[in-house]
Design brief:
six-stranded mixed β-sheet, alpha/beta, 168 residues
Length: 168
């Protein structure tokens, strides 16, 4: 078979086996359409994502390559920017808090299940947000935030094996 058909088969298998990639594709199309000033369709595709996959992603949010959403149902991604290789587990909320300000996420950010990241805050590159954490303050690069409200873990609180698993 031709190289193009092998790639197409690989993409089809990926989409068939991992339906969580579908809402990412729908978002990418809606973002592209919005960037090219196509009326109505970006908003329609946002609704498709909400109805079919249970995820709300605004077509106006720039998201870097490598977006990974393990379980999209119940996830809301409304931010000023999401960097490359961001990972979201399940039922995440990125949104505003008291004013019309949204978070900015750096590259390589990992967000655990049920976490809430609210307001005009910044999450640095390669930081981790624990499950069910409520982040309302900036998180520096490489840090781990846990709890309600979220606090930063010190190096003493992170066993080496745990810290190593977060880097992977």
């Amino acid at each position: 078979p031709a190289a193009g058909s092998v790639r197409a088969i690989g993409v089809f298998r990926l989409c068939w086996r991992y339906p969580a990639v579908w809402p990412t594709g729908v978002y990418r199309l809606s973002y592209w359409l919005k960037g090219h000033r196509v009326p109505i369709l970006p908003t329609l595709l946002e609704r498709v994502n909400l109805v079919l996959f249970g995820i709300e992603i605004s077509s106006s949010v720039p998201i870097g390559p490598g977006l990974y959403i393990a379980h999209p149902v119940g996830t809301v991604l409304m931010a000023n920017r999401i960097g490359a290789n961001a990972s979201f587990i399940s039922s995440i909320t990125l949104g505003m808090r008291e004013t019309h300000a949204f978070p900015i996420l750096g590259d390589g950010v990992k967000v655990g299940a049920g976490a809430r990241i609210l307001g005009g805050i910044k999450l640095g590159d390669d930081c981790t947000v624990g499950a069910n954490a409520v982040v309302i303050k900036d998180v520096p690069p490489g840090a781990t935030a846990v709890g309600v409200p979220a606090r930063l873990l010190s190096k003493k609180e992170q066993p080496e094996a745990f810290a190593e698993s977060l880097r992977e």
